[in-house]
């Protein structure tokens, strides 16, 4: 059995990730029924201020598993729309396999690794469920966990929940049907970016029902770990790609889009237990170097993040917002349509810069829903696009009052402009040279197309057997 540099047996690792969940679970104070994730949080560590490196589906996941920003690793748009990584050898799966891990895929991965697995560039074993729907994925995952394991495993568990299904003609789009009932809209609270109306309450209630179904899926994995006797030897990560699929959230560089749930639990001695809550800003980019650090493996030189270990072992103050980073960065280039923008977030301020032409919201980058229809119908697309945005995150946590033109904040604006410019230069952001072209075969909507953003989207759109 492979061991760490300190001679300790390498732990198993399970990486569980969902679509579009943001921080909408009970461990982050949201009134939604997620008992399994709540129990997990109380046993492990919750990062309250975790952020993705790109609030769209494939770019976020690609950044997490390479430790690089999307514009560095090549995944500047959606995998199923023609985007891909520059070099799959830069993913963490290469590191795990070289260290002796059995790299296993259960469900979706959405960065193109499945298509290259035969070349040794992804997973060694594919559990190949018939769809990426959570309960289908869990059947194979639970069976795998019940088997005898001669090597430590890295198990990638990706599920389609809580992505909208986009069924034509359906007023709500959260996998509803006989086996997935709708939510109760009477007593829900809408997010701060949405008006409180019957339509939005219905939409949020059905989303919450989808989150509860996601929680049940994760519960099956956690229960199987306990039953198999593997829980004490397994490091588990639970996260999502970005914010929830509502206007002003997913594909947005405000905290509503960048903010993600991130919870971890691990074997004794790693600092991943005890129900701790960490308030320091962290990034998805930190996970790769963190696992390397905890496992005693060298961190690849291309990784942009930092190990979270100082926050776990107490050598850095977990309550200090800037204990690990004084700033984190995030980006969007392509989603359903071209919308290049970049952001830098400090513990106090957020600066967002738009690089595309056009004077309105890019409607195609908002997932279709009753909430979107309501807001578009009441003038969302006529709102002027502010090319530079500056927000005070302590006095304006909803990021609704742009301070970029306020002379009182000129020094802060200048500082964050410089930070963003320096980051783009250091990381060789192609936006510095002008508009970023589509890759060969890439497909996106017209810039201002208000038609469905990702229609039709079904579980089969993320079929594990489709490259």
Layout of SSEs?
Elements: E1 12-18, H1 35-43, E2 45-47, E3 50-51, H2 57-66, H3 70-73, H4 92-98, E4 102-107, E5 125-126, H5 134-145, E6 153-158, H6 198-228, E7 234-240, H7 255-258, E8 259-260, E9 262-265, E10 276-278, E11 282-283, H8 287-295, H9 309-313, E12 328-334, E13 338-345, E14 349-354, H10 370-377, E15 388-392, H11 410-426
Parallel strand pairs: 1-6, 1-7, 2-10, 3-11, 4-5, 4-6
Antiparallel strand pairs: 2-9, 3-8, 7-9, 12-13, 13-14, 14-15
Helix pairs in contact: 1-6, 5-6
Describe this structure in words.
Helices cover 25% and strands 15% of the residues. It has eleven helices and 15 strands. The protein has an eight-stranded mixed sheet with strand order 5-4-6-1-7-9-2-10. A hairpin with a 3-residue loop joins strand 12 and strand 13 (338-345). Residues 450-467 have low confidence and may be disordered.
Binned strand content: 5-15%
Mean pLDDT across every amino acid position: 90
Q: What helical percentage do the residues reach? A: 10-25%
Detail the poorly predicted runs.
450-467
Number of strands: 15
As a whole number of angstroms, the C-alpha radius of gyration is 21 Å
Through-space gap between termini: 33 Å
